[in-house]
Automatic annotation (TrEMBL):
Gene3D superfamilies xref list: Cytochrome P450
Protein name: Uncharacterized protein
Localization (cell): Membrane
Main location (coarse class): membrane
One Pfam family per UniProt: p450
Cited SUPFAM superfamilies: Cytochrome P450
Cofactors, names only: heme
Key words, A-Z: Heme, Iron, Membrane, Metal-binding, Monooxygenase, Oxidoreductase, Transmembrane, Transmembrane helix
InterPro entries: CYP450_71D (IPR052306), Cyt_P450 (IPR001128), Cyt_P450_E_grp-I (IPR002401), Cyt_P450_sf (IPR036396)
Similarity-based family: Belongs to the cytochrome P450 family.
Amino acid sequence: MGEAACKIDVILGHIIEDHEAKHESAIDDENKTRAREDLVDVFLNLQKTSDLKFVVTMDVMKNVIIEIFLAGTDSSSTTIDWAMSEILQNPRVMQKAQQEETLRLHPPGQLMAREAREKCKVMGYEIPAKAMIIINNWGVGWNPAYWPNPGRIPTGEEIGDGTKSPQELDIEEAYGITTRRKNPLTVIAKTRIKFSD
């Protein structure tokens, strides 16, 4: 992980320096048509013109860019990984898993922030309008009051399609910003068709 982080840091550094050079070139040649701006250009403009209470350094730019990429890729790949684990345990309930169960059992983000649109009352608590609410995704999906056996997807037998007992898989979780599998999912496909020699 440390080596990968160093490589990403170097790559982002080159990208930012390239944008800085383009900015300097555009200042020197005012008649030159400016290219479409991207996120790095926005940061560089903020660096020069903003009255923010903090300095937009190269490290700040790198961190925000990495966060955006992680938010867009890590949560998706984590969800797909867990979906495959659950489907392998219960191949007959693929449709149900696709609809709801993967995100219920293994939400990629444990907590989710939302703002209340209006004043309301929830479980006896007064929630004012515009209040920031933190939702425990994991707690909702694993609440035994709503899910009779919250730790697993119902087998096909329980929903009436005659599936046998699910195959045991390692579904231990590793906790962090996103909740990944502790051990990578390794699937070995077996040939079902006999090939002639």
